[in-house]
Amino acid sequence: MNIAFIAHDRKKDEMVNFVTAYEHVFEGHQLYSTGTTGLRIMEQTKLNLHRFMSGPLGGDQQIGALVAQNEMDLIIFLRDPLMAQPHEPDIIALLRLCDVQGIPVATNVATGELLVRALQRGDFAWRELVHKYKPGEA
């Protein structure tokens, strides 16, 4: 599974704690992140992540490109709803793409926990079928 982690500045500690708690679940997957979030996760865990640019510099859009190609399976995006973000249009575009492609996305720890527990149970097997049979292919 391809899993991405994104966290706004005031949510980065929360993201590191979340990923650390579920490190054993994430270690068998392809992991992606925006720049600083990924660096912080790698400093605190043994996980290896492909890091894109930071969100405001285009990292959200880089992850969005994978979503648009239906090559992302799950996104944990800890947003800060109390702080205006200068790249808000990029964030909205990413969330819209997730809706279009049917990509599960958690925007807080509560939904993140639900998705990770579903991942542990194997409830995302349907995503393997999406990768195997892409739309427009015979």
Order of helices and strands: EHHEHEHEHEHH
CATH topology: the name is Rossmann fold
Structural class: alpha/beta
Query: How far apart, in Å, are the first and last alpha carbons?
Result: 23 Å
Shape, please?
globular
Give the percentage of residues in beta strands: 5-15%
Arithmetic mean of pLDDT: 90
CATH architecture tag:
3-Layer(aba) Sandwich
Question: Which residues sit in consecutive blocks of at least 5 with pLDDT less than 50?
Answer: none
Per CATH, the superfamily is Methylglyoxal synthase-like domain
How many beta-strand segments?
5
Overall helicity: 40-55%
Number of domains: 1
Order of strands in the sheet with most strands: 3-2-1-4-5
Catalytic activity: dihydroxyacetone phosphate = methylglyoxal + phosphate
Binding site for substrate: 8, 12, 34-37, 54-55, 87
Enzyme class: lyase
Keywords: Lyase
Structure description:
The protein has seven helices and five strands. By secondary structure, it is of the alpha/beta class. It has a single domain, classed as Rossmann fold (3-Layer(aba) Sandwich). Helix 1 packs across helix 3 and helix 4 runs parallel beside helix 5. It starts with a strand and ends in a 6-residue tail after the last helix.
Tell me briefly what this model is.
It catalyses: dihydroxyacetone phosphate = methylglyoxal + phosphate. The protein is an alpha/beta fold.
Keywords:
5-stranded parallel β-sheet, 14% strand, 7 helices, 138 residues, MGS-like_dom, alpha/beta, Methylglyoxal synthase, Rossmann fold, EC 4.2.3.3
